[in-house]
Structure prediction request, 245 residues.
Amino acid sequence: MSTGPSATQELQLMSSVLDAKDKSDLLNRMMKAVKSCGFESFLIGLEVHQGDAPPVHHVTSAYPEKWQRIYVDRGYAMLDPTVAYCQRNTAPLIWNEAMFLEAGCMPLLEEAQTFGVSHGISASFHEPGGNKSMLSLARDQQIGKDQGEKDHLVAYSTVLSSCMHVMASRFIVPEVREESRPRLTRKELECLKWVAQGKTAWEIGQILNVAEPTVVFHLKNVMRKLNVVNRHQAMVVAMRMGYIE
Prediction:
């Protein structure tokens, strides 16, 4: 570690992540911080919760693009033991061959090695409300047996993961929520807003100058898109998602 940056420089690089101005700036600062501790690339995984809707999973990766495509196309996220671990734990995990062998996904590790993503450390952050983030730092060089180096990397990844989580919540999570929001038509929104005012389908039809079955049709579409079973639930979920106030 003597040839690398000093502890003060490392701390400055980690804290600089908190000064990011936007998503692009955040990723650039993350890359500098990641490389300062001897890694070559990183992955940010997010689990975003929105009321009663199923959680949304999102990945921002600096891994080689070809490996990213292979990982997605082959559904490796469902097999990856680092993902399963970070879903349940927040203590950093240093990757090892045994955990891939135990999970029955050695082909994943062997293929990752061809892209220089063979050794790494993963750390996660879990919010009380359910949102989670995962930060994986990767390189092609094995993490040494020196316990001092391991302790240093564990501490570094823990702090960097926390900094990343704060800024991802600011710059990435809003994008994820917006992209995952069901797309309601203007007519569907109009009907929903009148439901929130306590109007019946017949009354809404009179207000909008359409037939009652048309209003029912729009409201059924809303319930389907919001994954709810009645109008009251639709109104509650829509309020949580910001469709109505």
Observations:
- The chain has a mean pLDDT of 92.
- The chain has two domains: 7-178, 181-240.
- Residues 147-171 form the longest helix (25 residues).
- Residues 169 and 226 are 23 Å apart (CA to CA).
